[in-house]
Amino acid sequence: MAVRSKLAKKHKELTFKQIDYTIDYHPRGVKSTDDLKACREIIGQQRAIDAVRTGLAVKSTGYNIFVTGSAGTGRITTVKHLLEQLEHGHPELFDVCYVNNFKNEDRPRAITFQAGEGRKFKKDIDYLITTLRKVVPKIFMSEDYKDRHDRVVREFEGRQKTLIRQFEDKLSEAGFVMVQIQSGMGARNEIQPLVDEEPVSLEKLEQLAREGKFSLSKLDEMRRQWDSLRRDFDLTTVESKKLNAKLEDAIEKLNYSMVAPLVSDKVNLLKRRYPDDKVVEYLEEVEEALTSDLDRFREAQPRRGEQDAPPFRKREPFEEFGINLILDNSETQDVPIVTEKSPSYKNLFGSLERVVDRYGYWRTDFTRIFAGSLLKAAGGFLIVNATDLLIEPGSWIHLKRTLRDGELEIAAFDPLYMMAGSGIKPEPIPISVKVVLIGEPRMYHLLWRLDEDFKEVFKIKAEFDTVMPMNKKNLKCYYEFVRLITEKENLAPFEVSGLQAVAEYGRRLSGRRNKLSTRFAALTDVIRESAYCCQKRRRKMVQRADVHQAIQDQESRVDLIEDKIQEMFENNTLMVSTTGTEVGQINGLSVYNLGEHMFGRPTRITVATSLGKAGVINIEREADLSGPIHNKGIAILTGYLRRMFAQDKPLVMSASVSFEQSYGGVDGDSASSTEIYAILSSLSGVPIKQSIAVTGSVNQMGEIQPIGGVNHKIEGFYDVCKSNRLTGYQGVIIPWQNVEDLMLRPDVTEAIKAGKFHVWPVKTIEEGIEILTGQSAGKRGRNGKFTSGSILARVDDKLREMAMAYQNFGRPENDKKVAVKKK
User: Fold this and answer.
1) Which entry of 376, 518, 657, 778 is 20 to 30 Å from 41 by CA?
2) pLDDT band for position 823 (cuts 50, 70, 90)
């Protein structure tokens, strides 16, 4: 056992019992996870649960939820489980169909139905069209229709023949005849007079008249008759066309009278089945479109030599009557919870698909409208990562507009709009959805400060904590969580010792001995890897040793840099003494944060003091290697020195402080007390034990303040001391407030238990300097002087000497004597 000085005994070091953080909780009747029920509830997030419940209960606009918490804590999974577990009541779900707008095809109509009704409506419309496509052609092929059609045709053909016969009679009486003359690829009708019972053109008769072979007077008479007959012919042609138009109208009326009652009966049946005003209006338009264009029932027919009609003549005549069911909740039983992992504009809000038609033009219609995840989550929840959402062009602005207006507008997102064809503008869909954004706290605060709309559409903040109180209830939840993972992934069961080790790991992750971590993603990894270690050892149940091995393996995968730095300590490339004493030299402690791995290592801090007025010189700052918090720490320790030693004299001192062999940036104030100890040692001439490392912040009153990373710092110094051989005198001075943070590695706690390593908690600078030097720090008496022979007295005397030396520097000897006499 190491021999300690009387002053060292005065300052009690921490015992093994104070440092030990093992958990001995053992539920009654539990031998392994097989005796536990799997945890099905959210653990340790009551604040977030209450916030989410508020967001659920308030149906007003804007009560969407922004979930904040540390990254990597499984927030999305936790939120999804939370939403699944909460009571939502009967979900208000609906179906959405887009249908053709027969009045304006560029503005498709949106029709909403109760959940399951949309599919039925689509099926009914499809059945209506299918039935009509089968029945109507049969009507046109029926004998009754053919008889009526033939009677109408015969009637108009008779009237047309009478008209033509009357005109032909006029031609015969006038001695003219109608002949057909070939003109290019076609033929035309022409009226010609009969000469010697042969039709002759007027042009030929004019030529004969010029030759004297035909009478001019008779030619003139023929011309007058030809003009009159030509006018009659034109009138006859017009009347014939009118008769053809009347024939077509009569046939259309016949077709309408034969088909309209059938269409009307079937549409009226659907109207009674779907009495909604919007549906009735659409059905009336369907009825009108079907009965106004009955030719659509006549499919394209193959021509001579064709076995089938070619595709370009085969159009789908009933495509406009299709139903685009973009949201179908017919089989949805629970509230929809949709997680959108890629929140692009298209994935969130839906899309309008464009196709190239046979003419090379881009086109689209209502049948090419597709739903996005926002519509799929209607009536429920949409979970989106805030960072992923904000980096997608157009998504954030459109989401705010949708949540604010309560309407979803599906539109094509065309950044390169000059290359896009003409589009359509579907009718907006009324929508009610709770959006859950998941992001880091800084993202929330950034949006809250810079985006005014954010406050209006995300009024609920659900903050996920990374820790929870350590009590029996939460420990049991921890054990049940282990049971859940082993059951879910078919892992080996955990003995009680293994469960306790997992809880101890969660305790260390939390950073406080009275807390447990809620970073269940990290805990899950340890559970899996512990089961693997158990499998390698060929055991049936996971024990404490398996958990410790899994944790050690996790660290060994990412601690290459730590090992390299440790090698530099072992071969003295990095110079740190763990034995002996030195004046103005002390071992500070720092933490290396590599993101995935943190570790601590000692750093030699030296101080050189001299006469001068520069005060405390921060060499790191002079080299632009000091961070703002470290600079603040230097300023604070300067304030401490002024308060303690510059009340009756000026502080005439220059003290350069250096982190030796530090070639990167230095930040933080955890070394400020360490720097004060080194300055006091340099001024007093009292050496500091190099077997002790120090960490702790300090204020201007000389009170030690807590710091972070205390476990890593102690373990880092222990590793260096162990590599140089443990002497029993080595240890670390820490702030007393950090005692509750101590959760050291098993090998470190065993060394403390054996008396080979020590941890001293201190409250003031005076306590720390006594441990470091083995001498009394001293106290200020009523006369303003420090205890004679103490360290503070020596420092005060040294600073007084410096002040006098500075005052007398450069003066003649006589002036110095006068100054001394005046004193």
Assistant:
1) 376
2) very low
The secondary structure element, H or E, covering residue 748 is helix 746-753
In which band, very low, low, confident or very high, does the pLDDT at 418 lie, cut at 50, 70 and 90? very low
Measured distance CA(210)–CA(213) in Å, rounded: 8
Phi, psi values for residue 746, rounded to 5°: -55, -40
The DSSP code for 129 is H
How far apart (Å, rounded) are the C-alpha atoms in residues 510 and 711?
A: 12
The residues, any chain, with a CB within 8 Å of residue 102's CB and separated by 6 or more, are 285, 286, 288, 289, 320
Answer whether 654's CB lies under 8 Å from 612's CB: yes
pLDDT band at 821 (very low <50, low <70, confident <90, very high): very low
**Cα dist from 318 to 6, 286, 290, 321, whole Å:** 102, 11, 9, 6
What is residue 125's DSSP assignment? H
300: exposed, middle or buried (Cβ count in 10 Å: 0-12, 13-18, 19+):
middle
Task: With a cut of 50, say whether residue 488 has pLDDT above it.
Answer: yes
Digit-coded pLDDT (tens) for 48-70: 888 888 888 888 889 999 999 87
| Helix (H), strand (E) counts: the chain | 28, 30
What are the C-alpha distances in Å from 612 to residues 608, 609, 655, 672, 676?
12, 9, 9, 22, 18
Enclosing H/E stretch for 111: strand 109-114
Mean pLDDT of the chain: 87
The DSSP output letter for 293 is -
Query: Following DSSP, what letter does each residue of 153-197 receive, concatenated?
Result: HHHHHHHHHHHHHHHHHHHHHHTEEEEEEEETTEEEEEEEEEETT
Q: Rounded distance, CA 798 to CA 809, Å?
A: 16
Q: Which residues pair with 593 in a beta bridge?
A: 598
**pLDDT (tens digit per residue) in 705-718:** 999 999 999 999 99
Token pair in block for residue 735:
């702030």
The closest of 60, 58, 41 to 49, measured between CA atoms, is: 41
Which of these, 614, 795, 602, 584, lies nearest to 679 by C-alpha position? 584
Question: Three-state secondary structure along 226-290?
Answer: HHHHHHHHHHHHHHHHHHHHHHHHHHHHHHHHHHHHHHHHHHHHHHHHCCCHHHHHHHHHHHHHH
The residues with which 732 forms a beta bridge, in sequence order, are 693, 759
